[in-house]
Amino acid sequence: MEGNSFIQSVPLEYFIILCSALFCLGVLGVLVRKNAIIILGCVELMLNSVNLLLAAFSSYKGDGNGQILVFFIMVVAAAEVAVGLAIIAMMYRNTKSVDISIFNKLRG
To answer: What are the TM regions of this chain, as residue ranges (predicted)?
Structure first.
C-alpha cells in the first residue's frame, strides 16, 4: 500500500476543487471557442478531470473498480478523438477552415 500513501496524504477536498476547476475550464472552452480542434481538446479536458476524480475516490476507498472504470473511459475518449479528428479533417478538406460557425451554412 505504499503507492496509496502519497495520494491519501493529500486531502480529498483538494482533488474535488482541482477537478471542478478543470471541468469548468473545459466547459468554458467548449462554450466560448469556435475552433473545432480546441473544442475537442476541451472535451478531453472534461473527461480527464472526471477520470482524475474517479481515480482519487477509488484510491481513498481502497477499491480498484474505479480505476478499471477510468481505463474504459479512456478507451471511449480515444475513440471519440479518432472520430472527431476524422470529422475535422473532412471539414477542413471541404471548407479549408476548422471554424465551427461554418456548420450553419450546411443547413438545408
So the answer is: 12-32, 37-57, 69-92
